[in-house]
Structure formats: C-alpha cells, structure tokens
Amino acid sequence: MAETKPDKPGFLSRLFGRKAEAPVVPEPAPETPRAGGHPDTMPSPPANAADDLTAAPPTVTTASPDTTEEDKTPPELAGADLQPVEGLDPEGTNPQEPLPRIVTEAGLELRPDIAAADLPAPEPAPAEILPSPAPEIKPSPARGWWQRLTEGMRRTSSSLSDSVTGLFTKRKLDDATLEELEDALVQADLGVPTAMRITEAIASGRYNKEISPQEVKTILAGEVEKTLQPVAQALTIDRTKKPFVILMVGVNGAGKTTTIGKLSQKFRQQGLTVMLAAGDTFRAAAIEQLKIWGERVGAPVLARGQGADAAGLAYDALQEAKANGTDVLLIDTAGRLQNKVGLMAELEKIVRVVKKFDPSAPHATLLVLDATVGQNAMSQVELFQKAAGVTGLVMTKLDGTARGGILVALAEKFRLPVHFIGVGEGVEDLEPFTARDFAKAIAGLEATS
Ligand SMILES: Nc1nc2c(ncn2[C@@H]2O[C@H](COP(=O)(O)OP(=O)(O)OP(=O)(O)O)[C@@H](O)[C@H]2O)c(=O)[nH]1
Questions:
Q1: In what residue span(s) does the SRP54-type proteins GTP-binding domain sit (predicted)?
Q2: d(C-alpha 7, C-alpha 200), whole Å
Q3: Is 140 exposed, middle or buried (0-12, 13-18, 19+ CB in 10 A)?
Q4: What was the pLDDT predicted at 6?
C-alpha cells in the first residue's frame, strides 16, 4: 500500500500560527495482507452460494421462529450480497446504470433486493453443534508478556528509536530538528495532533539546548501514555447477561477468528462457559478454523455450511446459548471489505436479528484491526461504527509492522476503548491493553517504573 503522509503544518509554520487539522486518510480499502501462512487472497465467492452448501449432520437447533415463508431468501439471491453491486463501481458510488437507491439508517446504500430481505432466512443446511472434547491448549511460552510485547513491537519501536537517536545525538534542539522529529512521528502513524503535542512537549523549556535521545524517548512515552490512558479499558463481561453476546467484526484477514479463539481461552480460564457461532460463512476455512479453536478451548461451535445465512445462524446460536445457560457467546462474521455495500448491509442485518432476540445484545461489538494497514484503520473504524455500532477495538499483528503508532492516532481521534492487542499468532500473544506498557514499548524504553 502506498504510504500516505498526512498534510500537516511544520513546526515553523505553527510558530506563525497555522493550525493543523487531524488527518483522515480514507485510502481505498486494500485486500488486507495476511500473516503467518494464511492464504493471500480471498477465494472468489461462488456464483450461487446455495450450490456450495455442504451436507451437514442432523439439526440440533431450530430455525428462527419468526421467519415466515415469504421472508426466505429466494434461491437466486442466496449469496447475492457477496457479489459486487451491479451498476455500481467497486466503491459503490457513481452508478452507471442507477438502481433505485435505498439507504440504511447507517447511511449505507443497499441493493433493492437485499433491502427486501430483512429477516434471516432459515437455512436449508441444518446447524451443527460440535461437542467440546477435552481442550488441547499449547503450553504457555516461557517468555512473559512484556518480552512478547517488546519483541513484537520491535519494528515500530526501532524505527522510531533510530530516528530519535539519529536526530538528537549531539545536536541542539532547533526548529529543523523539531520539524524532522515531527515528520518521523507522523511517518510512524502516530497522527498529526499527537506528533505535534509530543514535539511541543519536547521543545518546551529546552529550545536551543542539548537533549539526550533517552530524554526524548521518555517524553515521547509520557505523551503517548497520556493519549492512550483513557482508551485502555478492560472488556467487562456482565454476568447478568446470559449469554453475554460478543460480535466480532472487521475486514477479511484482520484476525477475527484467531482472536475469538484466544479470547475464548481467556474466558474459559476465568471459569466461564463459552459458545462460538461460525458466522463467517463466506469462507469454508474460517468455519474449520473456528471448529479447531472450539475443540482446543472446550467451547461448542455452532456451524453451518459455506454460504449459509449468517444472521439466521446468529439467531440460532443465541437460542442455543440461552437454553444451555452459556456465559459468553462469541459470533464470528465474514471479513467485510468496508466499501462493499452489500456485505456491510449483511452485517447490519446480523445486528438487527440479534437485537430481535435480546434488545440489549450484542453486549460488545469488537472491531478487529490489523495494525499493518496503517492509516486505513481510520476509515475502517468509521465505517464499521456506522454499520455495527462498534463498542471496542482489538488490534492484531503489532508484531508484523512498523506502523504500530496507528493505535495512538485511533485513540486520539475516536476515543473508543481498546481492549486487547495481539503481537503474534500464539494463544498467549493476545493480552489486555495497557497504556503504559504500550507507550514504553513504542518508545523503546525498559519496563521498570
Ligand atoms: N503475526 C500475527 N498474526 C496474526 C495475529 N492475529 C492473527 N494473525 C494471523 O492472521 C491471519 C488471519 O487471521 P484470521 O483469524 O483468519 O482472520 P479473519 O479476520 O478471521 O479472516 P477472515 O476469515 O478472512 O474474515 C492468520 O494467519 C492468523 O494466524 C497477530 O497478532 N500477529
């Protein structure tokens, strides 16, 4: 992806009073890069997903009770919202042959045929609940979290650290140095407002004096921590909600399925019962992946064949989880490119259907963001917030990028809680987000104090 350097006034121009706007860089949504041996591309959707339904074992749940015969998705529409919107360009704008326009509450445009299909259609393929055999959990690696965090974030911290050391070794703090520092911070995806604040904090009282790289890193960490502190919030499971429903959303390959597995393990370790709903019905491999996680952590998985209706599946999972007294239900969803209007509409439909069952659900809607996409994460938050009402963020793959600073820019702009961060594929590589640790890791400082 092309690096986009947000427009910002330099330190000198600010001295003359020009103010910068926080940058929003809506880049065209990329196919999210995958890490760790995951397929590089999404498989093409089947021409008619109904044709690809796999035979499944006997039904153990009932279909959504309020789904009438008329509400069933006609076979010719099954999987239709996995196709580009006819007559629209890939961004869903600038129609060449305008279709009647239907706009959702969230301001997203729907195909007229999808808008008509409001409720989940009961699936021809019956749901399958897998038993949960004894968990097979990999032994915890010997390294502690701090070590995994700093090792994982090495690319981000060393690029920042190199800039700081290069700039401040035996050099006075002048305009040129400050300007270069600000550029380096913006380049590290920290965002213009934060970059400006850090630069000003460093300049304050030290202008024209020497300052050591270590001092700069300490101020940098302090400012980053200040920005992150309000968003570093634990994910609290309200035990009065049974099940506590967590909807996982995000673009394809962001790490949703893997994160569900890691979270499930944490919940199981806290003594909670967990159920998983394989709502990523777009990719057969995602369903299989979730089943494997379910087996590992001892959580039953409700799954159907590829192409099945995700909203119907979510409804059935809720019913099942309620009947079983399950504590936490985690619903996986297909990776939706945020500019594919049909896919976002499907996500809105899942939320509507879940609310039909329990108006207070989903109790948490977690957007999983892949740190390697950098500034594109900004537009992902905006769009998923509109479609699904995101309540919190999980940032994955901080280990695979030098762009970990994006978390700071997101905190500054959206102020959404950040619950967890991921620094690797292992089950222990996801941990609750803490502002101080992250700030120190990004600045390349030691853990103490
Ligand atoms: N390096 C690294 N890889 C990760 C991390 N989290 C997830 N991954 C990997 O990213 C890849 C994609 O993860 P998935 O969980 O399949 O992503 P998804 O969002 O469910 O993807 P779709 O099913 O296409 O929607 C997998 O290879 C994961 O192992 C992380 O924190 N670090």
A1: 417-430
A2: 18
A3: exposed
A4: 45
One-letter amino acid identity for 120? P
Q: For position 130, what pLDDT does the model report?
A: 54
Question: Is 316 annotated as belonging to a binding site?
Answer: no
CA of 38 to the centre of ligand 1 (A): 7
On whether 281 is known to bind a ligand per the annotation, the reply is no
Q: Rounded CA gap, 271 and 422, in Å?
A: 22
Predicted local confidence at residue 68, as pLDDT: 40
Contact 342, 161 (CB under 8 A): no
335 assigned ligand-binding residue: yes
From the CA of 333, give the closest atom in ligand 1. 25
* DSSP label of 91: T
- By the 8 A CB rule, do 369 and 417 touch? no
Share of the chain above pLDDT 70, in %: 67
Output the ligand 1 site: residues, CB below 6 A: 34-36, 38, 250, 252-258, 280, 283, 286, 289, 334-335, 396-397, 399-400, 422-425, 429
Residue 199 CA: distances (Å) to CA of 99, 166, 191, 216, 317: 50, 16, 12, 9, 51
Q: Which domains does the chain have, with CATH numbers?
A: 145-231 (1.20.120.140), 244-433 (3.40.50.300)
Whether the CA torsion 313, 314, 315, 317 is positive or negative: it is positive
**Low-confidence winner among 135-149, 218-232, 236-250 (lowest mean pLDDT):** 135-149
Q: What is the pLDDT of residues 10-24, one digit of tens each?
A: 544 443 333 333 333
